[in-house]
Design brief:
Order of helices and strands: EHHHE
Shape: elongated
Strand content: 5-15%
Strand order of the largest sheet: 1-2
Helix content: 25-40%
Number of strands: 2
Number of domains: 1
Radius of gyration: 15 Å
Length: 78
């Protein structure tokens, strides 16, 4: 299995903010970046972790050979 992550809020985002748009607040920067995603926000690490935990658990035992997008709808559907 593969987990294909999109934009997940992490400790890297303050650096992105300073490099990309230091003239706006960090909260405004996150909101702006979130609007680029169909769900309207960045993902949370907990959401990514929950999927990985499911795949690693007995509950994910019948999930095999798949790539799962966790990107707020940013990837086009097949």
């Amino acid at each position: 299995n593969a987990v294909c992550i999109g934009r997940i809020e992490s400790e890297q985002w303050p650096r992105f903010h300073q490099a990309d748009a230091p003239e706006i607040s960090y909260a405004d920067y996150l909101a702006r970046e979130g609007r680029k995603i169909p769900l309207g926000r960045l993902g949370k690490a907990e959401e990514f972790a929950a999927l990985v935990c499911l795949l690693a658990s007995d509950g994910g035992g019948y999930i095999t050979g798949t790539a799962i997008n966790i990107d707020g709808g940013a990837s086009p559907a097949d």
